[in-house]
């Protein structure tokens, strides 16, 4: 039997939910590794809804679980139903939804809170010594919950290629060790069974982001 991996989504769309290409890459690579993905999302309202053409918030209201179901092709469960006992690993793709709907990182940075449901799930996998894969902005969840952990969000020097490099500095301020890695590379924190990669934190061609996520998935499965 292949490994059973929980994939936690945060909506549908880079600016207010899960990054669609990252989420799809996670599911494709899990399938390739012979693993079974089980998709979950919290049944809560999004912080806001962003018009992805204009990049501006709208007055609309949307639900994180309902929107995430678009990516999961309807095969999704409420995050409250997740039982770590029957699962081998956890992966959380990136996208602003992680910083808006799974935590308050978008508005509060290092002083943010992580939603209780999400924090409980992360802590449950960590306590069970089961691997956790995080990409793009989602490693900040680990930075907040597991002080002293090692992770990567890419590079720590801002430039055209790394527009979000300040995130690495914030992670260091939280007491974590940040390791600079290229978009096609991952960092494995062996002690915490934490696998991270930068994905769209890097202004890189989409196939490189896809490949980096593939390495993250491979390492997560290996650790499981």
UniProtKB/TrEMBL annotation:
Record-given protein name: DJ-1/PfpI domain-containing protein
Native species: Bambusicola thoracicus (Chinese bamboo-partridge)
Superkingdom of the organism of origin: Eukaryota
CDD domains, A to Z: GATase1_ES1 (cd03133)
Matching InterPro entries: Class_I_gatase-like, ElbB
């Amino acid at each position: 039997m292949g490994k059973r991996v929980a994939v936690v989504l945060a909506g549908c769309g880079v600016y207010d939910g899960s990054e669609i290409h990252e989420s799809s890459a996670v599911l494709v690579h899990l399938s390739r590794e012979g693993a079974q993905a089980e998709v979950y999302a919290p049944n809560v309202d999004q912080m806001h809804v962003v018009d992805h053409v204009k990049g501006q918030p709208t007055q609309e209201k949307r639900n994180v679980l309902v929107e995430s179901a678009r990516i999961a092709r309807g095969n999704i469960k409420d995050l409250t139903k997740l039982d770590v006992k029957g699962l081998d690993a956890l992966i959380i793709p990136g996208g602003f939804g992680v910083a808006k709907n799974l935590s308050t990182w978008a508005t509060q940075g290092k002083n943010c809170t992580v939603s209780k449901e999400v924090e409980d799930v992360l802590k449950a996998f960590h306590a069970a010594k089961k691997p956790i894969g995080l990409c793009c902005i989602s490693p900040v969840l680990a930075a907040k919950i597991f002080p002293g952990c090692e992770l990567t969000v890419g590079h720590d020097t801002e430039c055209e290629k790394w527009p979000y490099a300040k995130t690495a500095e914030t992670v260091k301020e939280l007491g974590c060790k940040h390791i600079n890695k290229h978009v096609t590379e991952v960092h494995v924190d062996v002690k915490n069974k934490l696998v991270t990669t930068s994905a769209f934190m890097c202004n890189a061609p989409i196939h490189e982001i896809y490949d980096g996520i593939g390495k993250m998935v491979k390492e997560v499965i290996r650790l499981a």
